[in-house]
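User:
I would dearly like some help making sense of a protein record. Take your time, and here it is.
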Amino acid sequence: MEALLGRLLALPAQGAATERRAALTALTQAPPRLLLLLDRAARREGGLAPGQAPGGDVLGLLLRSFAADGHVRQAAVEGLACRGGPAAVAGLALRSADWVDPVRSRATAALLARSAPEEVAAAVRVLLRLEGRSRARALLADYRGLLCRPPHRRALRALAADGDRAARRFGMALALELGEYGCGDLLHAALCDHDHECRTLCAQRLLDLDPGQADRLLQARDAAVRELAVAALPADVPATRLVAPLADRARRVRATARWQLYGRGEPPSAVYRRQLGRAGRTTPVRLLAGLAYGLGECGDAADVPALMRLLDPHRPAEAAVRRAAVHAVGRLAPREELVRLLRPLARDPDPAVAREVFEAWALRAPAAVPPELRRSGTAHPEPAVRRAAARIGRGLTAAPAGG
C-alpha cells in the first residue's frame, strides 16, 4: 500500500493531466476499502509533508486529505467540498470520521449536501466501511434518514442496483422500507437480482404483499427464495402441489415442504413412497433424485427395497438418481446390511456415487468394511473417494478409544 501511495504522490502536477485522470478513475473504480488503506498508509509513514501531493485537482486534494497535519486536511476538505464527482465525495465521506472536529464537521456538512445518484453511491460505499468507527455511526444513520427525503430519494433506485454489494444491500433494504418497489419490480428482483440477500429481501416483501405470488417464486434459482415461497403456501395446499418442493434439489426447501405436511398431520414419507411408486421411464431425473433424497431424510428401513430398485444394475438409472439412492440407503439401511447392499456400487463409473458409498460406510459401519474394499477406496482416482475411504481407517483406529 505504501508503494501505491508513493506512486500516486510521485505523479507530476503539470503536464500529465491524462495520467492523473487515469489514476483518479482507477481510485474511483477500486474497492472502497482502498481509500481507507491509503489513508492508514499515509499515517503509518508519518503523514504527508506540506509540499507533497501537489496540484489543485481532485487527485491532489484527495491525497492531501490523508495528511497528518489537521490544517492540511481541512484545506483539502474545503477544496473537495467545491468539487463534484464520486471521487471528491468519497474523500469527504472518509474525512467525515476524522478525529479533528473542524475537519469532521466541514466534511460532514459538504457530504450531506450531495444528492446526485453517483455521488450518493460513492458516499454510502465509504460510510459503510467506516461503520465500525464510533465517530461514523451517527453519520450513517443521519445519511440514511437524508435518503428518505427528496431530492436524495431519487438516488435510491440507483443505489439499490449499485455494483458494490454492501451499498446495494443498504439501498435495497431502504428502498423496500420506503415502498419504492411495486409487485412487478419485487418479482423481477426476487428472480433475477445478482445478490442473494437482495433476492430474499424482495421475495419476502412480495410475499408479505401478495402471498399468491408463492407459485411464481417456486421457479426461482435461489433456494432461499424457493424456501420462502414454500413457507408462504396456504396450509391447505394439496399434497400434489408440494411434490416438486418435496423433491427440490435443495435440502432446506425439501425440509420446509415436509413441515407443511407435518403441520396438518400428514406424513411426508407417504407422499415420497407414493410418488416413487408411480415413477417410470419418463419421470424427470431431477424429480426422481429429489424424491430419493427426501425419502432418505424422513423414511425408515422399510423403504430400503424401494430405493434399491433405483440401483438395479439391469435397469441402470442416471448417475444423479444413483447418487441420491445411495445417499438414502446409507441413511436408512440397517447398519449390518450396509456393506452388502452398497458393495456393488463401490466401483460405480460415476465417482460421486462411489463417494456416497464410502461416506456411508465411514459414517455408519467402518468396522464392517473388508480390507480389500478399503484398499480399493484409498486407490480410487477421485480424491473425495480416497478421503472417505481414509476416514474408514481412522474410524477403525479410533473405535477402541471411543468404546
Remarks:
- The radius of gyration is 30 Å.
- DSSP finds 25 helices and no strands in the chain.
- The mean pLDDT is 89.
- Residues 383-402 form the longest helix (20 residues).
